[in-house]
Amino acid sequence: MTRTLAVSLAASVSFAAVAPAYADASPELIAAAKKEGQLTVIALPHDWCGYGAVIAGFKAKYGLTINELNPDAGSGDEVEAIKANKGNTGPQAPDVIDVGLSFGPTAKEQGLIQPYKVSTWATIPDAAKDKDGYWYGDYYGVLAFEVNKDIVKDSPKDWPDLLKSDYANSVALAGDPRTANQAIQGVYAAGLSAAKGDASKAAAEGLKFFGELQKKGNFVPVVGKIASLTQGATPIIIRWDYNALADRDNGKGTAIDVVVPQTGVVAGVYVQAISAYAPHPNAAKLWMEYLYSDEGQLGWLKGYCHPIRFNDLAANKKIPAELLAKLPPAEAYAKAVFPTLDEQNAAKAEITKGWDSVVGAQVK
């Protein structure tokens, strides 16, 4: 990703409006997908980005069965699932993946994904897509603190606060930082805060920060989820704001606070791609058409993700006012930083390699 994208996404509306209406997927594609009859997805928990409703909407619209693999998998696991099932046309072979930005170009280089340009291609910012259509941004958010207020009375306001004795045995990542993009970005964000915005030092400082968090007994080596949060096992989770905001609405009686830190505000773009070995390639293409339609994009926004076509939808007044009212105020995102692909790749390599030796916590 480029810094240009960072500026554009942070703005309320900065991309030129394109045509306000788009045709549905072609009858030929719909027919071909229905003939295949099934789509296999991976790593799509229903409480992530509104995916539960998005999946239901796709099934209702086209009548296809969706086979859902390992909803708790990380981006690295998704790529490995393609590799492991190259010659497999059975139910364990994913047709599509939804991964962190840095995983898209890597998967392309390894020949694991195939190109496809959706009908709304022109409304996806150039900086958020592969020019040949191998991968394309779908949504973005920022790393935030999700806090169980029934247990933690004073929410942390910034990364250094997490080191306080008040938060002993309380802080968790939402994934394994050796494989999961969300967790890797969490380490990076903490480091960017410690490095005062110096991206070249963020990974090292992030590892050092979590090493200190582990040493103080504040870090919990468990993958943080809504269940562990409400049960008190991980009363503070570092995770994408859209997941935390969805939990706030669905906490089932638990009071949840969502805090965007004062420094080290890291935004992350996720990308979609179709497996080069997809057993159901037409169903995969139809899935992409749905995700990048107005309906699909608004489905993600209802799950508190900023869809990649957000500015286009806003320019064409397609976002319901009541939906906009539920989103956090724009000033919470004013300091958001969108790491470049080079920065992400360098940080991912350093964090995944150094976690065991510097931090030494086996996240499970």
Provide an overview of this structure:
This protein is an alpha+beta fold. The protein has 2 domains: about 5-140 and about 270-330, Periplasmic binding protein-like II (D-Maltodextrin-Binding Protein, domain 2); about 140-265 and about 335-360, 3-Layer(aba) Sandwich (D-Maltodextrin-Binding Protein, domain 2). It is about 40% helix and about 15% strand. The chain is built from 14 helices and 10 strands. The protein has helices at about 5-10, 25-35, 50-60, 75-85, 105-110, 180-195, 200-215, 225-230, 240-250, 280-290, 295-300, 310-315, 320-325, 340-360; strands at about 40, 65-70, 95-100, 115, 135-150, 170-175, 235-240, 255-260, 265-275, 305. Strands 3, 4, 5, 6, 7, 8, 9 and 10 form an 8-stranded mixed beta sheet that branches. The protein has a two-stranded parallel sheet with strand order 1-2. Helix 3 (about 50-60) links the parallel strand 1 and strand 2 (about 65-70). Helix 2 (about 25-35) crosses helix 10, helix 6 (about 180-195) crosses helix 7 (about 200-215) and helix 7 packs parallel to helix 14. The chain is globular and about 60 Å long. The chain starts with a helix and ends in a 5-residue tail after the last helix.
Fold-level CATH name of the largest domain = D-Maltodextrin-Binding Protein, domain 2
Structural class by sheet pairing and helices: alpha+beta
How far is the N terminus from the C terminus?
30 Å
Radius of gyration: 20 Å
CATH homology-level superfamily of the largest domain: Periplasmic binding protein-like II
- What is the CATH domain class of the largest domain? Alpha Beta
GO biological process, one term: thiamine transport
Protein name: ABC transporter substrate-binding protein
Keywords: Signal
GO molecular function, one term: thiamine pyrophosphate binding
